[in-house]
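User: What would this chain look like folded?
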Amino acid sequence: MQPAEAHSPWPKRIMIAGVVAGFIGVVAFTLVAGDLIDYMDPREASEHSAEYDSGANTVLTLEPGCWVVNVEGDDDDYTVKFQGD
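Assistant: Here's the prediction, encoded as structure tokens.
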């Protein structure tokens, strides 16, 4: 019989290092995912408010993007118009 050939330990070491790096990446992504979702969500990132004053300029110009208009109050004389470019 011939002696078995000596195998290099490096493929196994590289595989173990890859599994460890992948595990660390999954854990890190899981820890950061909540903040990342809040940062990328346009409903959260585009939260602005404007006060209505009948004596001031009542035109509000918004940059293109995802916007939601909520009118708070009990007055019935609000007019909201959306104009697209």
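The two ends are 83 Å apart (CA to CA). If you want, I can go into more detail on any region.
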